[in-house]
Inverse folding.
């Protein structure tokens, strides 16, 4: 063969091409596209909140307490006269913080446990899976409550608590994938070539488990938002005066009957974000799975 | 009397995709009487698509069109879904390559044959059971009662294929499309299944469309051969004349397989001509 | 570039049972094999004959066999002390990897779907900390007749025959002396099979490789191999040269049945 010039040199890296193709596939489904747009909006609002918010979310003005939505305060004010819209916007940062932190902990932890258990089998599998079963058998909110009770209330502790209880489904999923994949010919080849177990796991197995884990994580984000809101509602998550959406609902509960906007606004935000994550996860599932294995 | 006839004239099948329609079968024409007709080609030749198009078993994004597609006087293209549902199984039937994948893994095979029997005629449980065992005996399975109680994974490849044939026979079809029925079987078992198909063609007047990638096999087994490449029929000839085939692709296929009788140091390599699948 | 080590393979009394308790069955009975350096040896049999199992034992996938196996004078250790790949305590045998490599049957399953051709070929080089990655990869791609532009393709962008060539390139890149071939062409179209068989024959001549080829297709084995053994239900029933086979000199009735079915 005398081909000397490689026409692919300097082209976009292969994974960038794939990312673009994936994005295109995602946008084809209207619902998924809607979910993607909402989440994009969430990120944008979180980044620009200090500049977009019309007022300081923490500034109290008791003379203007419990004003209904109208010009000046598009979502009204709460019992301390704080602008609800501004609090909502700053709350996006907190929501995003929670979601990202939990995902960053749960993803790698769950995958590590799962692929190691699935690949090695035997006693390693048994020990890891029993551990997973133990954590899985607790209802997540109750376990999170217990963690927070032990560590004290606060946003960071709430996030940690949620993360520590959310990893078992990811572990189960990764293990299932690893079990199927470990028999594959290309894994056998890697072993035959002398690759160490760590290399086989990280370079060969994990990239293949990633898509289904990503889908699961995305759908998990919806329940993370809800659990965080639940903890906030119970007063165990973000502490006042932080404008976390669940805490806002909790505080607004007392005035709910007359000042519906105190509960409706953060509630609608939670609904929108959870649904968006669910739709995105669903779309990701379709976009990633069938094409991937041709 | 016009014997049952399958008439196919200018059959086209294309798959609708994001980038437009991809033609998979182009202008295929043939007739099938009471004989064994082989459709031979490699992967991507469109041979399996032709078989499935006859039974209208293609996915929704497939566009099927033809000047004529008639079976026994029925226009297959214009038939409604209900009409096709009645035709399939009862007059047109199909067996596929790997019985492990075409048999239901969680039902005993006898029950599956029973389902096919009951579609053809309403019978009581005992009568149905008897018919099932009759069919199993017809395909030369010894101990039909015991085999009827087994599950698909407990059967060998050859037995599985015979169970498929028994299921197909339950409704006494006129035309059988066999899609690579022996490719997944061991060489020593293949001949038994082929002999069985031979018997059925002779005794029951079954019309057989035999789809395969193995030109040498169909040359020995079938009456006529259609060679497909890139969606087109490049050559149609009686099996007996295969050795004198005209088309370079046919000749290349015949000589590409390593043979015990004609040993060569280097196997002849096919030079693909794009003109074969165009025009 | 010829390999420096052309292994001699000696198998004595290889036996293996699989399953436990009531489901235990013996899949290999007392298999004896001798493969000379630079020889192409075929194992023929139908499904369940145990031919692939022999290959797997030599590749180290099964370790709990009885008997003796020697590759290039180095004894493979069987039994429970033998190293099993994929066990958490096992460390890989790098020397064996430079001696024996394998080409699998299914071209659609033997390449990692998320690795480009370049990554797949570079992987063994990286594991063995070899240098001059690009040069070695280019050379091996040329040997199997694939254009360099294929380096950045993914498996799903390749045809079956092209994938099999990549698998062969990957097996050769460490320059092993022994190649284990598990039905390398049975999943390919007959015209593509011819190309791959020609390639395998050429490579063996050029590089002095030793082949152990497993197939159910007598024609393929007779074409590529000098000698072959016929297996039935876990035991070798006959060993003969392919010349003898084609001349009709097979003696065992099972061999004769196989010849008859192949040639009918």
């Amino acid at each position: 063969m005398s081909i000397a010039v490689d026409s692919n040199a300097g082209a976009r890296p292969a994974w960038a091409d794939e990312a673009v193709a994936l994005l295109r596939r995602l946008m084809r489904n209207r619902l998924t596209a809607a979910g993607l747009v909402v989440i994009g909006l969430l990120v944008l609002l979180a980044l620009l909140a200090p500049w977009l918010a019309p007022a300081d979310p923490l500034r109290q003005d008791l003379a203007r307490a419990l004003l209904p939505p109208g010009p000046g305060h598009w979502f009204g004010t709460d019992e301390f006269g704080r602008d609800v819209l501004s609090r909502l916007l700053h709350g996006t940062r907190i929501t995003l913080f929670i979601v990202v932190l939990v995902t960053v902990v749960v993803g790698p932890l769950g995958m590590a446990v799962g692929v190691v258990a699935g690949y090695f089998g035997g006693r390693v599998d048994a020990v890891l899976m029993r551990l997973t079963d133990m954590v899985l058998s607790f209802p997540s909110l109750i376990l999170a409550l217990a963690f927070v009770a032990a560590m004290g209330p606060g946003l960071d502790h709430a996030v940690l608590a949620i993360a520590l209880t959310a990893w078992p489904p990811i572990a189960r999923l990764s293990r299932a994938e690893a079990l199927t994949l470990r028999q594959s010919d290309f894994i056998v080849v890697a072993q035959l070539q002398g690759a160490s177990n760590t290399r086989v796991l990280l370079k060969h197995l994990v990239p293949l488990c990633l898509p289904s884990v990503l889908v699961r994580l995305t759908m998990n984000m919806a329940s993370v938002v809800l659990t965080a809101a639940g903890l906030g509602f119970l007063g165990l998550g973000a502490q006042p005066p932080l404008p976390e959406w669940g805490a806002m609902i909790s505080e607004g509960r007392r005035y709910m009957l007359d000042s519906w906007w105190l509960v409706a606004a953060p509630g609608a935000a939670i609904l929108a974000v959870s649904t968006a994550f669910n739709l995105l996860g669903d779309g990701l599932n379709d976009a990633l799975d069938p094409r991937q294995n041709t | 009397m016009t014997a049952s006839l399958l008439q196919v004239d200018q059959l086209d099948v294309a798959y609708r995709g994001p980038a437009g329609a991809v033609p998979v079968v182009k202008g295929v024409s043939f007739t099938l009487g009471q004989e064994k007709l082989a459709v031979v080609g490699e992967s991507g030749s469109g041979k399996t698509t032709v078989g499935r198009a006859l039974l209208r078993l293609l996915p929704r994004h497939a566009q099927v069109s033809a000047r004529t597609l008639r079976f026994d006087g029925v226009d297959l293209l214009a038939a409604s879904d209900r009409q096709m549902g009645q035709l399939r199984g009862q007059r047109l039937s199909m067996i596929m390559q790997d019985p492990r994948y075409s048999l239901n893994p969680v039902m005993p095979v006898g029950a599956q044959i029973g389902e096919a029997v009951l579609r053809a005629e309403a019978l009581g449980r005992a009568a149905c059971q008897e018919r099932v065992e009759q069919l199993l005996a017809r395909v030369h399975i010894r101990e039909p009662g015991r085999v009827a109680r087994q599950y698909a994974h407990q059967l060998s490849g050859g037995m599985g294929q015979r169970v498929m044939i028994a299921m197909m026979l339950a409704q006494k079809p006129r035309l059988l499309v066999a899609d690579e029925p022996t490719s997944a079987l061991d060489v020593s078992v293949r001949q038994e299944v082929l002999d069985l198909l031979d018997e059925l063609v002779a005794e029951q007047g079954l019309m057989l469309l035999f789809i395969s990638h193995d030109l040498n096999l169909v040359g020995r087994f079938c009456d006529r051969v259609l060679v497909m490449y890139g969606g087109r029929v490049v050559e149609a000839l009686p099996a007996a004349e295969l050795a004198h085939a005209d088309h370079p692709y046919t000749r290349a296929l015949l000589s590409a397989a390593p043979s015990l009788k004609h040993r060569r140091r280097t196997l002849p390599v096919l030079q693909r001509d794009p003109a074969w699948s165009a025009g | 570039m010829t390999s420096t080590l052309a292994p001699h393979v000696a198998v004595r009394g290889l036996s293996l049972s699989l399953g436990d308790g009531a489901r235990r069955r013996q899949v290999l009975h007392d298999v004896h094999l001798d493969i000379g350096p630079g020889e192409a040896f075929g194992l023929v049999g139908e499904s369940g004959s145990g031919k692939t199992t022999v290959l797997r034992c030599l590749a180290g996938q099964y370790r709990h066999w009885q008997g003796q196996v020697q590759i290039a004078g180095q004894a493979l250790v069987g039994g429970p002390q033998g190293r099993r790949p994929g066990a958490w305590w096992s460390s890989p045998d790098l020397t064996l990897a430079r001696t024996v490599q394998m080409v699998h049957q299914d071209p659609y399953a033997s390449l990692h779907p998320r690795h480009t051709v370049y990554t797949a070929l570079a992987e063994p080089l990286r594991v063995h900390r070899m240098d001059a990655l690009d040069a070695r990869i280019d050379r091996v791609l040329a040997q199997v007749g694939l254009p360099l532009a294929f380096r950045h393709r993914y498996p799903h962008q390749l045809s079956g025959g092209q994938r099999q060539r990549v698998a062969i390139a990957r097996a050769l890149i460490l320059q092993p002396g022994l190649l284990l071939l598990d039905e390398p062409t049975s999943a390919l179209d007959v015209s593509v099979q011819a190309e791959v068989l020609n390639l395998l024959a050429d490579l063996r001549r050029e590089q002095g490789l030793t082949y152990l080829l497993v197939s159910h297709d007598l024609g393929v084995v007779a074409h590529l191999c000098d000698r072959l053994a016929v297996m039935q239900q876990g035991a070798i029933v006959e060993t003969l040269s392919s010349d003898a086979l084609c001349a009709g000199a097979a003696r065992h009735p099972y061999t004769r049945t196989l010849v008859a079915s192949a040639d009918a």
Observations:
- The two ends of chain A are 29 Å apart (CA to CA).
- Confidence is low (pLDDT under 50) at residues 1-10 of chain A.
